[in-house]
Amino acid sequence: MEKNIGEMILSHYEKFLGNYTDSELYKNEEGVSIQVLEYENVFEGCKTYMSFGVSAFSGYIHNKCEIVLNVDNDFDRASCIFANVLMYLIENKVHFYKGSYIEGIAAFDEDFCAKHEKAGFYIAEAYPFPEEFFDVCDDIKIVMCFFISQEELEYLKKYGSDRFEEYLEENEIDIMELDRIAFVR
């Protein structure tokens, strides 16, 4: 018997991440729903959150993907903001790609953004995962997002995604560290 797409995605996640430890269903007033799956110990001291169901809205977002977020603290609030951003992308039919950013996340949790000095999300390739992790099945890819500060957002707008990512790599910036000091150039 052939597996359905959901079973294939979960099997892929299990292969690379193990079993999920928690799952939250998010649903909007129009009945659009996605899940966020939580994984522990994928990276030391961090939790990994995977979208489950975003790829079903590829017609809306022009991107057949699932999205991963890794954070090292304030887990519940980070995953809730992550889910809200995912719903925002779907509801507003936002076409995003590697190098895209979503700003204005304080609308979802102003206190969190002030506490951690974060202003947006950045979309990148899903590193530091192995390359095989990127391709799920049926042309579904995995992309990664991470929180960025206002300073990082301004740098990104001014210099572009290639230079932003080069800076992160050259300076060995730990994007999973929620309270990392924002760089200013």
Task: Describe, in plain words, how this protein is organized in 3D.
The mean pLDDT is 90. 33% of the residues lie in helices and 24% in strands. The radius of gyration is 16 Å and the shape is globular. It has one domain (5-170). A seven-stranded mixed sheet has the order 1-2-3-4-7-6-5, sandwiched between helices. A hairpin with a 5-residue loop joins β1 (22-27) and β2 (33-40). It has helices at 5-17, 58-61, 75-91, 110-116, 150-159, 161-170; strands at 22-27, 33-40, 47-52, 65-71, 101-103, 120-125, 141-148. It is α+β, with helices and mostly antiparallel strands and 185 residues long. α5 (150-159) packs across α6. It contains six helices and seven strands.
Give a short synopsis of this structure.
By secondary structure, the protein is of the alpha+beta class. It has helices at residues 5-17, 58-61, 75-91, 110-116, 150-159, 161-170; strands spanning 22-27, 33-40, 47-52, 65-71, 101-103, 120-125, 141-148. The chain starts with a helix and ends in a 15-residue tail after the last helix.
Sequence stretches where pLDDT stays below 50 over 5 or more residues? none
Number of beta-strand segments: 7
Helix content: 25-40%
* Sheet/helix structural class: alpha+beta
How much strand? 15-25%
Main β sheet profile: 7 strands, mixed
> What strand line-up does the widest sheet have?
1-2-3-4-7-6-5
What order do the helices and strands follow? HEEEHEHEHEEHH
End-to-end distance, in Å? 56 Å
Radius of gyration: 16 Å
How confident overall, as mean pLDDT?
90
Total domain count: 1
Work out the helix count: 6
The 3D shape can be described as globular
